[in-house]
Amino acid sequence: MKNNFFARVNAIVLALCLVISAVSTIQLHYVYAKENEEITNDDEDTSFDDYDIEIMSEPENDNYDVTFTSGDGNQDYSSDNEPSNEEIQYDPFDYDLTCYTPNLNYGIVYQNDYIDIQKFSIVNTGETPFPITWDEYDPSTAFDLEVAPGASLDTNPGSQIPFYIVADTSLPAGDYCAYYVFYSANDIRQHHRVQVTVTMTIKKNEPYVESVEIIPATVSLPCGKSYQFSAKVKGGNGYNQGVSWSVTGNNTTKTTINSDGVLSVSADETSTTLAVIATSKQDTRFYDSSIVNLQPVDHIVSVSADPVGGGAVAGGGAVRNGGSVRISASPNNNFSFSGWYEGSNLISTAPAFDLTNITSDRKVVAKFTRTTCYIKTSVNTTDGGTITDSCVIQSGGNITITAKAKEGYAFKEFVENNKTLSTSNSIQLNNVTSDRNITAVFTRNKYNVYVSVTPQDTGTYEGAGKYDKGKKVVIKQRAYDGYEFAGWIVNGQVVSYNTEYVIDKIENDLNITASFRKREVKTYKVVSGITNEGGSIVPSGEYTVQEGGSITYQIVPSANYTVKNVTVDGKNIGPAASYTFNQVGKAHTITATFEKVQAAPQKNSSSTGQQAVAPQKKETKKTEYSTETANQGAVPEQNIVKEETKQEEGELDGEDYIEDTFVPLDDTPANNANNELASNNSIMAKYGLDDATVRRLINDNAEMALLKEAYETGVLQVTVNNSFAAYTQETSQGLYFDNPSLINFETVVSATLTEDEKVSVLSGNPILFNVSITDNSATVDAATKKLMQTKIGYKPLCYFDFFIMKSENGSSEVLTKTGSELLVVLPIPDAYKKSGRNYCVLRNHNGVVDILRDLDDDPDTVTFRTDKFSEYSIAYEAVNVNKLVLQLIIVILIALVLALICYINLWRYRRMHRKTNRK
Length: 919
Description:
mainly beta, Immunoglobulin-like, 5-stranded mixed sheet, 8-stranded mixed sheet, elongated, 5 domains, 919 residues, 14% helix, 9 helices
């Protein structure tokens, strides 16, 4: 009996050991497989240090560089020393240069408004150094060209020379256009040249409308229901913000919209699609529309934001009786989310939640509260001075802003909304309840005088250098042996034959050429002129050119005109930007004919934010030509030539023209002064970039510099609302934090936007990204919590909701995936900090829980990458997987040893039992 009991115990133990071994083996396989799956699913590079966190990278393709950096090198233009034979001699024609932004457009501005300077750079794209010179043609002296302080006009291969353009908005209303032609100072024939065009339209200071935006951009409705639309009108100078509402596409007159934007769809409406239109009351050229889809549904859930600019909302729409819908809200810059309200009732404080069991129409409002105000500060030129840094203050708070000028500059004024705010260099803003954008304007009090010699090595000069504003400048010259002085040239025009060139009061940078010629050389006359109004030829009139010499003519159309043709010695050579007579050996004539550019048909404003601009009929007055205005680009009175131009075009032939340099008009892309002007936020319009060029930049991955400017202007905006961070709200516009939550949001946004969306942004159409990271430990649903708690080896500490909303044209959507992975940094809440813990993030996306491991060594944060957005939790490794595997192996071994012992005992018992039976 005792032996039987012993055998049964061994059998039971053996069975248990085998079960334990089998279960442990299965569990070991499961744990190992899951861990291996996590490792396999992770990217190869899991190191935070190796992760690319460069926020803004410059485009690698130099052909599309739109940055503005200082040139290198220094040149002493005032040296009287004759050239040394030991100096390296370069072929004066062996050079190349370019400008990547040759078309600068101020767009529409208003009289006496302050506008920012425009910048561009001339780049030495050749392999030899050369000094830059330029001619400028500004008939109305509307613009002032300045070389960036500290920049040299001597270029090395690959170097850039930055220039500034300052516009004068005090001029009469009209269209203004100026041309700047850059070439080597060693190459008076201009074998290589770059033309930069600047355009501007000035309007009278009167109310104006920029755009209309209707909210939402699309909605689904059932028949027999009503819906409230809203519209935002942007403009200035006391404009009318009202709109007129209308509806089209309806098949019954019972479907109407009232003056408040409430659409009432008739129950017997048979149309499936309607269009609701909001038209500006002040300017009917500006409107926007929303598409209404009529569906056979029971109820409509409408969501809206209060105030409209307080945040982004998404969700709602048509729903069946008893159904549910998810709604989401995220505050914009300097707002906080207060909760979801239905009437006066607070129904939820969660930014995203499910509205369930819907049995009637619901109107839910996301209320936002202004918490802080963003004070954006800037300077009109970084060389001019400094200003108090941009910052965020509490709504209703005060701040003092101070500006300080740098050497060579003087503080002029503080400007806001293009208007002078104060002329004191320190101002205090009290009770600030809205965002402010303040610019400190500095003016130069020192100017540069640049002098060059043509032809090379024929003479020298003195007087070049830097002068205080308003000072008298005297430039002197001295011809080398065998040469004589031939005149002072400014912008291709001889302005004086005096031995000294005197500027009574210097007001801008000057570029002067001292011209020399051989003594007792044979000369020829070259006569130039225009056949009709609409432009200029420079120089104009009768000029004497020495035998073997050269003379260059610039053909400059006025605003809204283009060059029709150029006639050389009676031969029509077609439209040209310039023509150079080289190796002159006989008399020549050259005339230019212009024609009015046909105005493009007006376009109504749409949600892209572009302006429709009426053509200006009033002609602007030319600046009276004098020695002083010549220094500012004014064009002299033109020689009018009465002749009939041959309509047929032909080529010049013969030895007399073989050396001439002819620049066709098509080779100068900036002659379209009548281009359609877009809104002031259009980066494409600012730099004269067309749709094809921008798309080529995007396809070459070279658009980041342009997108960076979109962030700076606020056209592209990212708002991060992170309840775990010290700064619960972070923005991309002008302000960034020492410890941001999202390290690489710029590259992720770029990867997420489509090509069409990037073009839309660069044309001035705003796109906003609202990122919400909200602790929802108190409200997370039980199923999500249970799913994360069952993750082997990990213990959730707190839960958070992570979602991204993209808003465009009055419509918002919640993104579940981005084009690339975000690098996110979350502080560990103090309540969950404990020495020795290995933190991580668990992500529940569509029912699959992934482990996002910590990528840095900071014990106070958890850093992870993700491109999927749903429910998350901060967790720590409760049981190390390797230790767990070791424990399971030990259990299996112990179970197997016990099983072996039991098996041996059973075998011995059975053997003994057989012997007993034999006896």
